Model the fold of this input.
Amino acid sequence: MRLGLYEAVLKKGSKIQKMYGQDTIQERHRHRYEVNPAYHEILEKKGMVISGMSPDGKLVEYIELPNHIYYTATQSHPEFNSRLDKPHPLFV
Done:
């Protein structure tokens, strides 16, 4: 299980990188699931952008579809850092 704070390296020019406004971020995790590395290349060939990875380049942290106005997904829990007066960048 991945539990706690983990770093992600964001792909330059991706929607996620633009939302955060930085190249690396740290977010909290609590899950047992990962994207199978055998499918990374296949997913990207079909149009999905892997827009955030672990620093070692093995674990997918963020994905998005470039031709959709806001199709993004994350392994992290951005709701843990979101407040009414300061919403998380992914919710803005």
Summary: The first helix runs from residue 15 to 20. The longest strand covers residues 2-10. The beta strands are 2-10, 24-31, 49-53, 60-64, 72-74. The chain has one domain: 2-77.
